[in-house]
Design goal:
The chain has seven helices and no strands. The protein has 190 residues and is an all-alpha fold. The chain starts with a helix and ends in a 6-residue tail after the last helix. The relative contact order is 0.18.
Length: 190
């Protein structure tokens, strides 16, 4: 069962990383997966929070950062060393064929910290701001998915790595949002 799942994972990686490649994605995906590319989004979110929720904004930011730290610590320092799954560039079955659009990292691959972080942020923001009535808040999940897809496309992770990271991030984001909402109540525009 595990072998069949890993074979499927490697096959799906090959499709995304090689068969679905094109010059536009080759140029864009390394930027999309880079956390610094999204700094304007993070700054806008902080500005929005402090302009609209002055009293609760600092606590909101602290909870967001706590969730981010939890996803990062659990993915990078607990699960990756525990599972020790090689990245596509170091995997015996894919190292010769993987298209690497970024330098190969020889750290472990499961779970993806990018996926955990972005889905954790998305879930936290969604659950704490959904009462505000922002129409396109669901786009946060599309953003997180795009980052995850880029991770596979550039050769950094296998699909199961990003799926595992997404599940971890959704769980942590959900829990931190529940604690925030219970402690401070739902956010409302005045």
């Amino acid at each position: 069962m595990v072998k069949a799942l890993l074979d499927f994972d490697r096959s799906l990686f090959g499709i995304i990383n090689q068969k679905w490649s094109n010059p536009l994605f080759d140029a864009a995906m390394p930027f999309i997966r880079n956390q610094f590319f999204w700094v304007p989004v993070y700054l806008f979110l902080l500005l929005f929070m402090f302009l609209n929720f002055r009293k609760k904004a600092l606590w909101w930011v602290l909870f967001l950062l706590a969730g981010f730290a939890l996803t990062d610590i659990l993915s990078a320092q607990l699960l990756k060393p525990l599972i020790e799954r090689p990245r596509p560039c170091a995997d015996v079955f894919t190292s010769d064929t993987a298209r690497m659009l970024i330098p190969c990292s020889y750290s472990f691959s499961f779970v993806s910290s990018h996926a955990a972080n972005h889905f954790g942020i998305s879930m936290f923001v969604f659950l704490t701001l959904k009462q505000v009535g922002i129409r396109y808040l669901w786009l946060l999940f599309l953003w997180a998915f795009l980052v995850c897809y880029a991770q596979v496309y550039v050769g950094a992770h296998f699909p199961i790595d990003v799926l595992g990271g997404a599940i971890l991030g959704l769980f942590i984001g959900h829990r931190t949002a529940l604690i925030f909402n219970k402690q401070f109540g739902p956010l409302q525009l005045s």
